[in-house]
Amino acid sequence: MSIAATTTPATEPGGAGNDGQFTVTQTALSGLDTVITYSVAGTATPGAANDYTTLTGTVTIPAGSTTATIDVAVLDDPIVEGTETVIVQLTAITASSPGISIDGANDTDTVDINDNDFAIIEFQL
Question: Is the N or the C terminus of the chain less surrounded, counting Cβ atoms within 10 Å?
C-alpha cells in the first residue's frame, strides 16, 4: 500500500473555486487512521497578509477512507506578481496500519497560485 499526492491549482483572490488543494491518496483501505507529516516549500509566502494561510504540516486519512485533502487557502493582496508556488512533500507516516508507505516517486506536488492583480500605468502631458 502506498500514499501519493495530486493537486488542484489556485487563483488569487482565494475563496470558493479559487483555493488550491492537495489530495493525498492511499491505495487501499486501512482500519486505522493514517497520519502523514509533510514539509512545505515554494515561492508563495504563508501567513496573514501574504499569499496563503499557513499549512499545519500533518494530514490524516481517516480509517475506512483512501483520501484526505490539504487545502491551500489563498489570500488576496494588491501586489502585482507572477504565478507563485506552494510545494508539499510527504515526509513521514506517524500512525497507520502496518504495510503503508509513501510512494517516493509521487511524494511531492505543487499548487500554482495565479495572480489576478494588474498594474495601470498613467501618462500625463
Answer: C
